[in-house]
């Protein structure tokens, strides 16, 4: 009987140790997840900043249509200047 009780106590201790290891592993995982959440938040903030910059650049940049218009106007003005100089 005493031998059986000792075996039960030893098994309970072993399972208690395993449970303690599991608790520590879960706690370490929680710490890592918290750190990752912080990093993700930083990345999201940077992405938002980049998106805002891209929107601003797109709003200010010349379009293909603008460049074609400027090319056409420069050509017309160059022809007019040439005509004025040669008449």
The overall strand count is 0
Structural class: mainly alpha
Distance between the termini: 126 Å
Mean pLDDT, all residues: 95
Helix content: over 70%
Largest sheet: none
Low-confidence stretches: none
Q: Beta fraction of the residues?
A: under 5%
The gross shape turns out to be rod-shaped
Query: What's the order of the H and E elements?
Result: HH
Mind telling me the C-alpha Rg? 37 Å
The number of helical elements comes to 2
Short description:
With 87 residues, this protein is mostly helical. 93% of the residues lie in helices and 0% in strands.
Explain this structure.
The protein is mainly alpha-helical. It has a domain at 2-61. The protein has two helices and no strands. The protein has helices at 2-60, 64-85. The mean pLDDT is 95.
Quickly list its features.
87 residues; 2 helices
List the helices and strands and how they pair.
Blueprint: H1 2-60, H2 64-85
């Amino acid at each position: 009987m005493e031998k059986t009780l000792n075996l039960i106590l030893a098994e309970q201790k072993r399972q208690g140790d395993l449970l303690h290891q599991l608790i520590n592993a879960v706690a370490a995982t929680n710490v890592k997840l918290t750190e990752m959440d912080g990093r993700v938040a930083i990345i999201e903030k940077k992405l938002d900043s980049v998106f805002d910059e891209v929107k601003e650049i797109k709003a200010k940049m010349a379009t293909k249509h603008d460049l074609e218009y400027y090319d056409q106007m420069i050509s017309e003005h160059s022809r007019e200047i040439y005509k004025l100089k040669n008449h």
